[in-house]
Amino acid sequence: MGRVRRLLGRPVVIGALVVGVVAAGVGAVWFQPWKLWVDRTVHESAPVAADAGARGPRTLAVGELISHEHSTKGTVRVLELPDGSRTLRLEHLDTSDGPDVRVLLTDAPVKPGRAGWHVFDDGLHTSLGSLKGNKGDQNYALPAGLDLNRYSSVSIWCDRFDVSFGAAALKRV
Predict the structure, then answer these.
(1) What is the tens place of the pLDDT at every residue in 79-98?
(2) Beta strand 41-43 with 135-141: parallel, antiparallel or unpaired?
């Protein structure tokens, strides 16, 4: 016991302990590891026409999410409402949560495996905002005037680590 007390009384040991505690704190804030075990579930209804007599939304494109850095499943739909507004809808999404995860509309081809992990912010891409939840159904408004013909995929993208959790190639309907 006396030996441990003498060791802990040395300035070098105290400094190393302080640096270690600060590094662990910074690492926890940066990586946010608890998000791997905490789910955020969102259940937003599909958008509907404001006018009860109008037709419902029309599907413009659809895709199935594949896994990249994290196991990811779900369907992506691009919907157009009668008023001309468009929404990207994630249905039955199931992925991991993480720090600074976003939904990106991109021109990158969807590649399986590690080849597809880092490509979605290289070319043309538009962030539709932060991922609302890592599970469930959610809607993201597309900017007015966005030329959908310039985009071919959607990525669930971790901006902090520049990696795709999963992605879907969009097929025009």
Answers:
(1) 999 999 999 999 999 999 98
(2) parallel
